[in-house]
Design brief:
single chain; binds nicotinamide-adenine-dinucleotide; alpha/beta; five-stranded parallel β-sheet
Length: 522
């Protein structure tokens, strides 16, 4: 199995013989483990709670993937206390030892990739290719961070001197207890990567996953623990986001936080509340309303392929999903016709059974959103494809829908302005590149963007003026999606992110560190 090429977000299918065998074993194990209860993990010990919440599968909502433990405020307080107590010795542990432990975590993730991806499929309905890609990405993010730490020599740098007696050093040091709050759409990578970054840099962690995907999160956290982290260094809490968010905001022992999720929660409920007595670092990675520009000189084969993959891959559940297309009037009808043909041919199915392009929606809320938005587009006369739930035969018990295309809504319509996070794409015809750019940037969010054009001047202007943290040109593998650690560092501008530094990039680790300038006079 080891000789197979790595599955990434630009891989077209994970359907080799080895992958099929791996998934058969992974899915069988996940199904054997259905209904299990996942405890909290505090100060090196598993802790069961009085209350639990069932996590059901979106592929068949009668299946309980597992039960998550509902943490009470006292559990959260214990987790913070354990992380605080573990901090002094963890920060003094040589960074090379911390990297060694995390390297072991990455290895365990790779070894368990079919089990973890099967769990992602069961709990949130991703396709096999997307799920395996996410697990590989989680391991690669950890390895990449280890490499950056090594290249930076643990962020200890000799500095200049103003006199022969001075010895000056810049040392980047951890903050303390770091909270990590993660979303459901990348339940493995967006929990594992910030946890690894915080731990590697010497912080101790209290981690809280989305209440929609607690079982995959717990399985991942077990692999971190299995690598032999000292007690209290990593604590794992499941339960109410509001309760955890409250504690993170109010407890002065929490020194920093990484939140990945919606703009509404991340900016309004966390970032704006987080600094009370003095500023505390708060990394918030939030949503997108990502545009693709298709100009009159565009290679339409590439544009159709790239937009289709980014709008409908993983059912539009990517923060980087393409949700708006601005297409030049000279090619608009041809583009729409070819895109619709591809949309109509979309293969939807149960990824537990075989590799398909899309599985189910991930959550019941997503289904409600999809149906509400579709009706709104229909009422506005803008729905040109999709807008239907699949309820027959193999789809009867799951959350399956058709990819949906809208055209010609006014730019101030809420479906054009707000992040929808379901497989719905809006197409607007424009008269010029300038008009497309103006509309593309007219949003509070600024995560990803794409442009299809053969005109060099337009491409230069696109790079110069587009307000987004991850941008692609003429990319058939994904107009706006498919970033990979160490290849396309991932993060947002404006309302999409707070640091201006991307995940899986050159500057990620420095977000978890504070500088101390040391001068010794001899
Ligand atoms: P969400 O904001 O609803 O929840 C995110 C996390 O916050 C969950 O763990 C949730 O339990 C927790 N939470 C809820 N209330 C809280 C509070 N008051 N204080 C603190 N935490 C609280 O987001 P979601 O629906 O899980 O995820 C989808 C969103 O995430 C989309 O907007 C998507 O674009 C975004 N996202 C962004 C990135 C990125 O890298 N920029 C990546 C993935 C997802």
């Amino acid at each position: 199995m080891g000789s197979e090429p790595k599955v990434t977000y630009v891989t077209l299918s994970a359907d080799s013989e080895d992958a099929r065998a791996g998934f058969n074993a992974g899915i069988a194990r996940v199904q054997r483990e259905y209904d299990q209860t996942m405890p909290l993990f505090i100060n090196g010990r598993a802790r069961n709670t009085r209350k639990t919440t069932a996590s059901t599968s979106p592929l068949d909502t009668s299946v309980i993937v597992g039960h998550a433990s509902d943490a009470a405020p006292a559990d959260m307080a214990d987790a913070i206390a354990a992380a605080e107590a573990a901090f002094p010795s963890w920060r003094q542990t040589p960074w090379s030892r911390r990297a060694e432990l995390l390297g072991d975590v990455a290895k365990r993730i790779r070894d368990e990739r079919f089990y973890l991806s099967s769990l992602i499929i069961a709990e949130m309905g991703k396709s096999r290719t997307e799920a395996l890609g996410e697990v590989e990405e989680t391991a690669d993010l950890i390895t990449y961070y280890n490499d950056r730490m090594t290249l930076a020599n643990g962020f200890v740098h000799p500095m200049d001197s103003l006199s022969p007696q001075d010895r000056n050093t810049s040392v980047m040091r951890p903050y303390g207890v770091w909270a990590v709050i993660s979303p459901w759409n990348f339940p493995c990578a967006l929990l594992g990567a910030p946890v690894a970054a915080a731990l590697l840099t010497g912080n101790t962690v209290v981690a809280k996953p989305s209440s929609e995907t607690p079982i995959i999160a717990a399985a991942l956290m077990r692999l971190f623990q299995a690598a032999g982290l000292p007690d209290g260094v990593l604590n794992f809490i499941t339960g109410s986001g509001r309760m955890v968010g409250d504690a993170v905001v109010k407890d002065p022992r929490v020194a920093g936080a990484t939140f990945t999720g919606s703009y509404e929660v991340g900016f309004h409920q966390l970032f704006k509340q987080f600094s009370v007595t003095y500023p505390r670092p708060c990394i918030v990675e939030m949503g997108g309303k990502n545009p693709a520009l298709v100009m009159d000189s565009a290679d339409l084969d590439k544009a159709v392929a790239g937009v289709y993959r980014s709008a409908f891959g993983m059912n539009g559940h990517k923060c980087s999903a393409c949700s708006r297309v601005y297409v030049h009037e000279a090619v608009a009808d041809a583009f729409v016709e070819r895109l619709l043909a591809k949309v109509r041919a979309t293969e939807i199915g149960n990824p537990l059974e075989r590799d398909v392009f899309v599985g189910s929606l991930a959550t019941k809320q997503s289904l409600n959103d999809y149906l509400t938005y579709s009706q709104s587009a229909r009422n506005a006369g803008a729905l040109i494809e999709g807008g239907v739930q699949l309820q027959d035969g193999p789809f009867a018990k799951g959350l399956f829908v058709r990819p949906t295309v809208m055209r010609g809504l006014p730019e101030d319509h809420e479906l054009v302005r707000q992040e929808l996070f379901v497989p719905m794409l809006h197409i607007q015809t424009v008269r010029s590149f300038a008009e497309a750019m103006q509309m593309a940037n007219n949003t509070t969010l600024g995560l990803t963007a794409g442009c299809f054009s053969q005109n060099q001047k337009e491409l230069e202007a696109f790079f110069e003026d587009i307000e987004a943290g991850v941008v692609y040109v003429n990319r058939a593998a994904g107009a706006t999606t498919g970033a990979w650690p160490g290849v396309q560092p991932f993060g947002g501008w404006k309302g999409s992110g707070s640091t201006g530094k991307n995940i899986g990039g050159l500057y990620s680790l420095s977000c978890y560190l504070r500088e101390q300038s040391r001068t010794v006079v001899e």
